[in-house]
Amino acid sequence: MARGTFNSASYGLSHLRHDLLRTVSMISTLSITIAFLLLISSLYFGMTTELSSGDERKGILEGTIPGSLDMYQEFQIDDSIPEEARTTLMNWLFLTSFLIFVVALFIIYNTMAIAVEERRAEIGVLRSVGFSSREVMRIFLAEGAFIGLISWVIAVFLGMPLIVNLSVYLIDRGEQGVFFVQPTIPYELTLLSLVLSVALCLGSTYLATKRSVLMSPVDMLRHRD
Amino acid sequence: MDDVHFIEIEDVHKGYTVGGSLVKALDGFSLHLDEGEMCALMGPSGAGKTTLLNIIGGLDTVDSGKVVVGGIDLNRLGESQKASFRKHNVGFIFQFFNLIPSLTALENVLVPAMFGRSDLSQRAEDLLVRVGLGKRLDHLPKMMSGGERQRVAIARALINDPKVLLADEPTGNIDSETAREIVHLFQELNNEGTTMIFATHDRLVAGRAKVMIRIRDGRISSRKKSPKDGMIHLRDEKE
Ligand SMILES: Nc1ncnc2c1ncn2[C@@H]1O[C@H](COP(=O)(O)OP(=O)(O)OP(=O)(O)O)[C@@H](O)[C@H]1O
Ligand SMILES: [Mg+2]
Asked: How far apart are CA A34 and CA A156, in angstroms?
């Protein structure tokens, strides 16, 4: 076992590894959500971007998803979709993604709240060895931020290529009456999703942890199962 | 006559509201202890031993009364100052060891120094060697026996070189043979100058302390100096 210096980051990582099932479930929930949100937005941008600005989009595409330029050259957006159909479709998609987002938020918050409940004695110990509630909160927030970051990385570098390839495959087999839009993810949106992912995790962690961290350490230490 | 003591507790009242009614954990409690003392707290369950340890360690606040430890008036400290007081002056040891399950023995010992600038891993290793766990540095708590876990907890309590060690029933979950070793370790640490206070239900464990204090209903009911042979004759304690 390699023994580096031990700090609050290694503390958080050890815990996430120790509580692997919960870590994996939070990361998968969040990464699927992020990937889905990106897909929805990519459809939106795919449908609204003017064909004339194609060159610009090529650049964006290639910059966002490696290998996507080839795909771009093969397929063009079907410009013949009626305006109302687009709007209706997009409204449904945005509503769905909003719901998915809320559910993910709830799942993550809930998972964290249960985890924190189980870690009350641990919080008591951290307080007893001399950490202020602020420092304890910092440890938990760092764990949350890590989950947000990893989920985003998985969503963007694993989820998106998957979705893009799937779209290409579907476009390939495009049958009558079915249309597919080529995913286009503006660079800014990818960044925005990172901010969203981390912020969501920090927010849930804060809300789930606040009560326990501010409680009297004595009560935490009395907490036994 | 007003000489200064390392621990000065005067007329401390501490109550908890449980379901609307007030439970008095400490009721006009006073205690003076000098630096380097080794003190055992005894008394029936609910007498206020844990409450007293928590107050001395700056983990709990009093309703009224004076609490001064090592010249620091704990009533005047804010939350983060109290945390810092604990970090630099106090080592806590618990009945249920309270190690962090995801961390190795060595990492557990390093937890109190987590945010510190200096790397204390060598000191942590030395402490684990000192408590007889030199070969268990990378072991997780679940691989260790109760006695071994408690020794990790003792090393953790010592990492920041505290002035006082507070132990709440440190041998409550340990067989009597191992308990003797733990108390022996306490005696060694005490001989090196660390002030020790521990709550216990075990008369033999308590008998090793120089001072034995018996608490009942939130007050001291007796205070004895332990005779040299370490044998103290007491009524049997029943919960
Ligand atoms: N956080 C708390 N909330 C409510 N009541 C409390 C709390 N802490 C202590 N008490 C009450 O205060 C009294 C003293 O408790 P304390 O834990 O100090 O006793 P003790 O001597 O340590 O007992 P034991 O030997 O069982 O550990 C008890 O009646 C207990 O129920
Ligand atoms: Mg107690």
From this structure: 8
